[in-house]
Write a structure and sequence with these properties.
CATH superfamily of the largest domain in chain C: Glutaredoxin
Strand order of the largest sheet of chain B: 2-1-5-3-4
Strand content of chain B: 15-25%
Mean pLDDT of chain C: 95
Number of domains of chain C: 2
Largest sheet of chain B: 5 strands, mixed
Strand content of chain C: 5-15%
CATH class of the largest domain in chain C: Alpha Beta
Number of domains of chain B: 3
Number of strands of chain B: 14
CATH architecture of the largest domain in chain C: 3-Layer(aba) Sandwich
CATH topology of the largest domain in chain C: Glutaredoxin
Number of strands of chain C: 4
Helix content of chain B: 10-25%
CATH class of the largest domain in chain B: Alpha Beta
Mean pLDDT of chain B: 91
Structural class of chain C: alpha+beta
CATH architecture of the largest domain in chain B: 2-Layer Sandwich
Oligomer: heterotrimer
Low-confidence stretches of chain C: none
Number of helices of chain C: 7
Radius of gyration of chain C: 17 Å
Number of helices of chain B: 8
Largest sheet of chain C: 4 strands, mixed
Distance between the termini of chain B: 51 Å
Distance between the termini of chain C: 28 Å
Structural class of chain B: alpha+beta
Radius of gyration of chain B: 21 Å
Strand order of the largest sheet of chain C: 2-1-3-4
Shape of chain C: elongated
Chains: A alpha/beta, B alpha+beta, C alpha+beta
Amino acid sequence: MGRQLLLDNLDKPGINTLNGYQETGGYESLRKALQMKPEDIVAEVQKSGLRGRGGAGFPTGMKWSFLAKPPGEPRYLICNADESEPGTFKDRYLMQRKPHILIEGMIISSFALGANTSFIYIRGEMMYVYHILQKAIDEAYAAGYLGKNILGSGFDLDLHVHCGAGAYICGEETALLESLEGKRGNPRIKPPFPAVKGLWGCPTVVNNVETIAAVVPIIRITGEEYAKIGIGKSTGTKLISASGHINKPGVYEIELGVPVEEFIYSEQYCGGIRNGKKLKAVVAGGSSVPVLPAELILKTANGEPRLMTYESLAEGGFATGTMLGSGGFIVMDEDTSVVKNVWNFSRFYHHESCGQCSPCREGTGWMYKILSRLLDGKGETKDIDLLWDIQRKIEGKTICPFGDAAAWPVAAAIRHFRSEFEQYIKNGKSDVKHYYRINNLQEI
Amino acid sequence: MARVTIDGHTIEVPDGTTIVEAARKIGGDIVPPTMCYYSTLKTSGGYCRTCLVKVTKGSDKDPRPMPKLVVGCRQTVMDGMEVQNITSPEVLEAREGVVEFLLLNHPLDCPVCDQAGECDLQDLSYGHGDEGTRTEFRRRTFPMRNIGDKIKLHMNRCIMCYRCVKVAEQLCPERVHGVLNRGWDAEISTYIEKAIDNEWSGNMIDVCPVGALTDKTFRFKSRVWFTKPLDAHRDCDVCCGRVALWVSGDAVLRVTGRKGVYHEIENTEDGKPGWICNTCRFEKKNLSDWVIEGPRHIDRHSVISQNHYEQLKQLKQDLSRQKLIGEKAHNN
Amino acid sequence: MATNKEIKFSDDALALIEKIIKRYPEGKHKSAILPILHIAQAEFDGWLSPEVMDYVASVLKIQPIEVYEVATFYTMFNLKPVGKCLIEVCHTGPCWLMGAEDVVRYIEKKLGIKNGETTADGMFTLKTVECLASCGTAPMMQIGETYHENLTLEKVDTILEEHRNAGVRRTHWEKEKIKS
């Protein structure tokens, strides 16, 4: 197991309370940060090479440096805790087990950005985590870490937690801002970007939970030290949510650069495929990223071992590669129907489309209907080409990246598993394992 | 000022001008079609994606091309920007895709739709769509609704352009209708049957690019191409009073705002908004209510833009007669 | 379900709502709409009737349509009456791989209802939902604020039995958490 910067001391009793967290050195980074100049904190984050952990992987320090600072106008920091990408559950795990690392990260980051009011936007389904965070915030206020003149530094910060109400699209940063303003979660048309006009028209930074939490160890060990972990531009540690047909599903903090093969088969991590089955395919970064068959997820097209880094997973482009995304690592064994899996994802995107722009509103539903027909054994060969054409006409044509997220899984399934689609068309549904059972369950 | 080149035509426009507005200044075939953008409604545009264009050069300062197609109605020009619209096969293909998406659930009930003949979606699909259809699924349907006693909402035809919502937000004192539900199921509605009851609500009909919002006083009265458009005005203490009358014989079948080449209600000559009030639209259905200015030239739409009525001698004679009647009535 | 009782938040709820509204800058109180609608579901039988939405609009001093637009966008708001115990089974991706369809079929059979329906006694409503970020402990379902993870059919039996015996309404914002 590599260095644990976020999940360390997780088993210590009381780590979810202020006292327990402080006993492991919690809020020391905040004390250190408040002695620094805000711009030095930004520089430290830039040096660390930290990249957004929500999925896009954009350099955090650079995002922070884009924040407009017009005099007399408030700035906001928003934590995106709307974790809804299928296959991703790391943020919930971290917030539930160690809420104060997020609170501490929020205070440091708000100080660095000059925000005096900050929000954590958590999805409504995680209401019990909302209450955990609210309790942690109350504790932090009582301890003088929040409110006026924090630890005598002269810096004021009010931190609030805000709950959503069931909409995947609110994980898109401008949809999140709309939702936080009390509206429908419709993504905004950019430009302007949130760094210039965000929450209530003011300059705003939106960062993922894990990104903000990572600021705490970066301040503790310095950006330079953090950048030494990992490979190349994939620095530091990353939380990976491992799920599907593996022996040990769960959240793992890896040093970026672990070989995929080691991650799947080592006892430290996923512990191999359950029931002694063979690996068929992996969706490596949440439902939106292209699925890869076993041979391409373990090794690149050049035969190099595939590593858990932003670059290595993307090696070969979409023809033979994928993305690290949010780190939602979904493993499928040899019995899985990739067609049915992509049908499932299509239903998800059809259900979650906000409906603002036409390619996404209409295209996601169309793809879902074609895939449903295919699963019903009523598909035709031309449906495969039609699906390909539809996803191509959605990708890159929509207001927000949701369109791409809906298109890519379909494209990748056809690209790598076309024969399985043909099998459905040829033999109808009887031939293919149609749905997955609870482990080893025979009858209901 | 910014110098922008669109399909090889260069023009200088004020900073902050959008690509679509710059293209409209050039005019002709290089103007990207728009379905949701409406120049006089703030924050309109960006939804339908028909005006997607390719920016091959960002600006003189930063000449990199933009990685994705951009919506011309929202993207502002930069000095030195180069844009491809109809010269880009990628744009034309994307637009064909958008037309297909917009028609996917559209009922294609043009034969019984009052908008037929002056419908932006008809024009768009003739101009930019492919022949035939590739969908075999049942189309999405919604119940028909009345929005008050003068406006019919035919949600099946709606393409979710949001223009009517913006009219309500920007013209009406309060908004009682909006977009409900989500995604595939999203619809324009009042949620509970509620009349939209204010003087400006009728403008929703004029901004609707399709036959989703239609004038109940004109419903099934005539195909638009059988009516003759006339420019007319009256003294109105609510609105500008400058309208287009759609006439058959002596009967005023319909009153609308005066729509220009891009099918948007034009500002008056003195630069005031051309929106009209519900009294002018729904209540003034006699020629004697109006001062007739003459036949209205229609630029854009498939059938009525033939403007055959302009050549009709008889009509001209009728007109002068009607004009006299109108002026007389007006002077009384 | 339909009663003529006056629609009014409890004193505890009003106090909480006031506190929530204060989190947002002056004039930006509309931001409080999502939490308030959650509280409204907890206070008014687990769903949002048009009357309740109109009431929320009056509390927030906004147009009713602004509430309808929001309430119909977010899937956690029930626009029709639901049973005391709304069973939300995740059926996305990883949960599907781990047998979510078994869970849904089993509950349907056990309660004699289809997805989306409510039992005749008004106790249970079954609803499939999209990913609840609990993929490592799949299959799973949510009742009220509680995540029930690593489900087996036996576990489903026990959970439903417990709720039937308790007989109390569960909502995402649990009623006892309105009291502060």
